Amino acid sequence: MKINELLLNRESPRSFDSNYIISNEDILTITEAMRLSPSAYGLLSWRTLVIKRSSKFREELLPLFYNQKNVTEASAIVLIIVSEFDKLIEKDIPQYVSLMDDNTSDRVKNYEKRMLSDINYAKVDPYYVNWTSKEAFIAMGASLAVAEELGIDLCPIDGVNKKKIKEYLFENKLIEANEKFGSSVILGKRNIDVPKKKKIRLDKKEFTKIHD
Amino acid sequence: MKINELLLNRESPRSFDSNYIISNEDILTITEAMRLSPSAYGLLSWRTLVIKRSSKFREELLPLFYNQKNVTEASAIVLIIVSEFDKLIEKDIPQYVSLMDDNTSDRVKNYEKRMLSDINYAKVDPYYVNWTSKEAFIAMGASLAVAEELGIDLCPIDGVNKKKIKEYLFENKLIEANEKFGSSVILGKRNIDVPKKKKIRLDKKEFTKIHD
After folding, report:
1. Would you say residue A94 lies in a domain?
2. Helix H segments across A62-174?
3. Contact A210, B52 (CB under 8 A)
4. Whose C-alpha in A107, A143, A170, B167 is 20 to 30 A from the C-alpha of A57?
């Protein structure tokens, strides 16, 4: 299958070509996959900030990414910004409802009530802690093959100082108080002087068990 | 772009054709995208259990999915099973290291130490609660376009009784004690008698801000 071949061939580079400059067109094609990803109730609870190598914010962000080699070399960092539960309730749900065709119908009003009730429940359920951050990972997953299709190398970067990144983004007016940093991917061209790693995955038989 | 067109065309069906039977080949193509997805350190911390409509487990699982209409109609439920932190430490890391080429080298030994240290830190960091569940969402995201490419409809299903599903799977010896239910997708053919929903997304300009 074509897309699985892209997923098989891609890798998360440890090192990027520090001279390569990704085009905004390629960036927008990759974030488009994130935009089209599904979310619970279709709530549009994430968005992206792209920090290119030339951006004034980059140097100050790097230490919060622990100056990881590939982050410092990549052409762009895509920050996936997610809603806190308060923003889901105060902004995302009303916005979503306003975009629905029949938004004055009883059906939509009942749907809105159910969303609010479910989210208030999720707030206190330990299985749903970081729910909106989890959803950002759907977007990340959707973007993997799209980047490879463009010939762009993409590496998910999640092991960072999330609390400080959130604070930095808020202080610099890049996010609102009811948003937070979810996760990120970095983009560019891999450094061809660093050989690809062996791809290690669970054996297919171990990975999937079908109960007929 | 081809993959973005697939993402644009797909939808999460509210209703499935309750007679359609998905082939195991198609199921395995979709779970292959999940298997190939990247994870932190490449730790292979998730796997899949597929419950087809004919499986003896299906009827008992449906109430734990709140008998959602589309789940009851779908041809197969793909349960994404993720590791608890203890399994990462006790099984996933040693297994991963054993599969590496130079696994007796100092480099790998240091890498193993760093993984253990990072995971022990993540266990107590509120931003990393449900970390392994989050990673399952990368797999989910990667599978979206692959299903559409096959002409299979896929709907992520996350709003379920996760605690009870975990207990049920453990009682029925489908998972180990140090695993849990992460999330799920359902597969089949959409019910063509139910019209597609309008696709509601944030405006492109609002979704992506590039800082040059």
Report:
1. no
2. 69-73, 85-87, 93-99, 106-122, 131-150, 162-171
3. yes
4. A143
DSSP state of A153: E
Yes or no, beta carbons of B134 and A138 under 8 Å apart: no
ipTM score:
0.94
Q: Which domain holds residue B151?
A: 2-82+135-197
Query: Which band of pLDDT confidence, cut at 50, 70 and 90, is reported for residue A132?
Result: confident
Q: The domain spanning residue B28 has which CATH number?
A: 3.40.109.10
Q: Taking all residues of chain B, what is their mean pLDDT, rounded to a whole number?
A: 93
Instruction: Look at residue B88 and tell me if it is in a domain.
Output: no
User: Can you give the pTM of this predicted structure?
Assistant: 0.95
Give chain A positions within 8 Å (CB) of B162.
127
Structural domains counted in chain A: 1
CA distance B62 to chain A (A): 15
Number of neighbouring beta carbons within 10 Å of residue B44: 22
SS3 B125: coil
Q: CA A79, A85, A90, A94 torsion: positive or negative?
A: positive
Q: Using alpha carbons, list the distances in angstroms from residue A34 to A1, A23, A81, A147, A185.
A: 22, 17, 12, 11, 11
Three-state SS string over B34-45 comes to HHHCCCHHHCCC
B141 to A140: CB separation less than 8 angstroms, yes or no: yes
* Residue B204 placed within a domain: no
Contact A154, A189 (CB under 8 A): no
Q: What is the pLDDT of residue A118?
A: 86
Q: pLDDT at position A40, please?
A: 86
- For the residues B109-138, what does the mean pLDDT come to? 85
Across the beta sheet with A46-52, the strand order is: A153-157, A179-188, A76-83, A46-52, B208-211
Residue A68 falls within a domain, yes or no?
yes
Per residue in B22-53, pLDDT (tens digit) is 999 999 999 999 999 998 888 878 999 999 99
